[in-house]
Every structure is written in C-alpha cells, then in structure tokens.
C-alpha cells in the first residue's frame, strides 16, 4: 500500500490542457491549478490569494512562492507518488470574498489542506473557514498573535515570525549600529487596528527596556491620506527612529509625505508596507533605506535557500542577476513546511497531519522551528529576517550571514 492512505473517497482531479507555462486552468471558473497533467489521485490544497485589490502586488509575489513550492512538492513524482494540486482563487483582498471562494473550492473538490492569504484579516478569515471544515490550515504573512492565542484554534498553523519576533529584530538591527551613532529617540505610528496596537505596545515595551526613549506614540486610521500631523509631531519630538506597520498603500503615502516635508528620521521601519515591489515602483529612490521585516529575504542561507534561488531563476527571472522579492521566499517556506508535515504524517488524514505539525521540527528557508500550543513558531526560534531597500533591491540586514548586506544608516534626507 502507498504510504499515503488513498482508501477514502478522494475525487481524482483532471486538469484542463492549454495552460500557460506551468499553470493549468481547472474546470472551476476563476481558479488556477499548479502541478503536472493527467488524471491521478492527488493531494489537494485550496488557497485564496489577493491577486487583485490593494494587496495584489504582495499577494502575487507570494503566489510565485507558492508555485515554486508546488514544484518542490511534486519533484520525483509527488509526495510518495501522490501528486500535489494547488487550487487558487483570487480573494480580491477582501475577507468576505475569501470565504466565498474557499467555500466554492471545497464544495467542488476533495480538499486535504488550506493555505492562507496575505495580512491578518485575510489569514484569520481563512483560519475560521478551515476550523469550521476541520482541515489543516497553514498560513504565512501574519504576525498578529492575539487571534491565535485565544484557545479556539485546533487546525491553524502559521510558520511565520510573530510580533514578539519582529520587535526583537528591530532592537537587534538598531544594536548593530555603533553605540555613539545609534538613534535614541523613537517614534511609533500606531495603526488603529488590533495588530497595530499589538505592535506598538511590543515596540514600546521592548525598546524602552533596552534604554531607548519612546518620545512619540500616535494613532492613525487605515486608509489615512494625510500624515502631516503625525510628521509634525515626530519632528517636534525629535524622533530619530520611526516605526510603523501600515498597509502598503498607507505606507507609500506616508513615505511620500515624509520626503516632501523636509524632515526625515535617521531610521525608518515600515513593517508590511515596504514588503512588495509596489513600494519601489511607487517611490523609487524616495523609498530607499527603509527597513521591512518579512521573515525572509535574499541573503538567507541553508535550509533550501540555494535551491529556491535556482528555481526562481529558472521559472521567473528575466535576467541573470534578478533575485526574488521577499514574499516569494515566505510562500516557499509554507510549501516546505507542508512537505515535511506530509512526509512525517504518512497519511493525508487531517488528524495525522495535525499530529505531525504538532510534533515535528521544521527546517525551511526562514529558519528552524517547531510549533507551540497555538500553532505559532516557538518563541525565540525565528530571527524575523529583516531587509532594507537598497537601490531598488531588498537586501538582508538581519540576521547577519555571509550573503547579507551592511545596514545603510542614516537615511539620506
């Protein structure tokens, strides 16, 4: 018998010919299927990703990582001879749409696992759906801890750094600077959201304990088009290091207005906002030297990073020196976690996969980790890899490796 038990009624999935490149178009309208061809038993994964809407730029980069990950899962004939199929719908950056498309996919297919979208609202909408279905749910691109620690999640696993990891990384990056040249006065722009409050509180606590002066902490609403008051407050407080976790459009707006204000902190970290290529496309040199903490960046080593870079070069790169954007590695990490869990489970039964996720240690491009009781990486295991925009490229500045870059500091005004 196969290592995977196919005795349950798993519907064979027939992929439609005529796909572009490695993509196959399923019989489900609007869906995209990745994998080989022909009719066979499959391990079916459902996903919703923001291919349109305000999060589309970063969503499509993450989807590239998912594609590379499915190629990895299907190397050598699949997982113990079982082909892995990823069926993806566009969630349009909207939680309601996400729930609807996941319902459509799971109604029309025998789904074994669900992969998450980008950002906490979309990820938690997917988690709620998967919990209701009793299916393993793996997601990246969410640092928000509070929704994961309420004790209600049985099937949700997030192989991705959390708020505690990101804020620790901020302190480590600042600590790389010579003590006499290190910024001392910190300003926090707090998004009026659950994760915004969680990040602001963690930054203030972490950096205050480390001896920094948190000179400003002010709140703004998502979709804010005018950051002039916050900029004026930061300048009046003599803020040298500015920290925030805005949505990408908000962060781009804020950075444009900072550049036009005549005031520029020496250090700017915009978690989430600076992740996508859209940051550089919108800002160009005005977006230079801003820090992000996406959990993976080119320059990470070991655990399949070289294989990821090679695979990206063969599948997506348009030039020999092109390197993947940060969310590509983040998505690939999720596929590596899935592969290792399936191999350890020796079954696609949900309980067996969940037990493997609970018990195994995982080795992926973002680091080595195991899951705690809440399905989060154990505290302190992940470094929360952070990158900096340097002349149009996202360069690893933490943790330091033989392939990382030196931190550019201070930001040029």
From TrEMBL:
Stretch forming the signal peptide: none
CDD domains reported in the protein's UniProt record: PBP1_ABC_ligand_binding-like (cd06338)
Source superkingdom: Archaea
Keyword presence, Transit peptide: no
InterPro entries per UniProt: BCAA_transport, Leu-bd, Leu_Ile_Val-bd, Peripla_BP_I, TAT_signal
Protein name: Amino acid ABC transporter substrate-binding protein
Residue ranges of domain Leucine-binding protein in the record: 42-378
Natural source organism: Halorarum halophilum
Swiss-Prot/TrEMBL GO biological process terms: amino acid transport
Keywords attached to this entry: Amino-acid transport, Plasmid, Signal, Transport
């Amino acid at each position: 018998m196969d290592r995977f038990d196919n005795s349950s009624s798993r519907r064979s999935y027939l992929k439609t010919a005529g796909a572009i490149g490695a993509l196959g178009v399923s019989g489900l309208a609007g869906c995209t299927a990745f994998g080989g061809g022909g009719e066979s038993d499959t391990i079916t994964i459902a996903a919703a990703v923001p291919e349109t809407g305000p999060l589309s730029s970063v969503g499509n980069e993450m989807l590239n990582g998912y594609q590379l990950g499915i190629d990895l899962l299907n190397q050598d004939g699949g997982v113990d001879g079982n082909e892995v199929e990823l069926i993806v719908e566009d969630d349009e950056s909207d939680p309601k749409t996400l729930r609807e498309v996941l319902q459509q996919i799971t109604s029309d297919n025998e789904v074994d696992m669900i992969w998450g979208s980008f950002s906490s609202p979309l990820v938690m909408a997917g988690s709620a759906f998967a919990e209701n279905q009793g299916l393993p749910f793996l997601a990246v691109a969410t640092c928000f801890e509070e929704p994961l620690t309420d004790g209600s999640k049985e099937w949700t696993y997030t192989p991705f750094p959390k708020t505690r990891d990101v804020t620790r990384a901020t302190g480590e990056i600042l600590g790389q600077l010579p003590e006499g040249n290190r910024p001392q006065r910190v300003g926090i722009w707090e998004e009026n959201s659950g994760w915004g409050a969680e990040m602001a509180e963690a930054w203030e606590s972490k950096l205050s304990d480390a001896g920094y002066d948190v000179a400003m902490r002010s709140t703004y609403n998502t979709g804010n088009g005018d950051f002039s008051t916050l900029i004026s407050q930061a300048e009046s407080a003599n803020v040298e290091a500015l920290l925030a976790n805005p949505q990408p459009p908000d962060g781009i707006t804020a950075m444009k207005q900072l550049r036009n204000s005549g005031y520029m902190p020496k250090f700017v970290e915009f978690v989430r906002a600076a992740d996508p290529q859209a940051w550089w496309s919108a800002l160009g040199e005005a977006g230079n030297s801003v820090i992000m903490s996406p959990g993976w960046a080119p320059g990470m080593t070991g655990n399949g990073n070289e294989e990821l870079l090679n695979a990206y070069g063969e599948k997506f790169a348009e030039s020999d020196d092109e390197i993947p954007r940060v969310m590509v590695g983040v998505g690939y990490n999720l596929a590596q976690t899935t592969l290792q869990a399936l191999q350890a489970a020796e079954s696609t039964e949900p309980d067996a996969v969940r037990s493997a996720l609970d018990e195994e240690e995982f080795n992926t491009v973002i680091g080595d980790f195991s899951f705690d009781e809440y399905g989060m990486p154990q505290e302190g295991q992940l470094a929360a890899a952070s990158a900096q925009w340097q002349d149009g490229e996202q360069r690893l500045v933490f943790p330091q490796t033989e392939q990382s870059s030196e931190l550019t500091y201070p930001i040029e005004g």
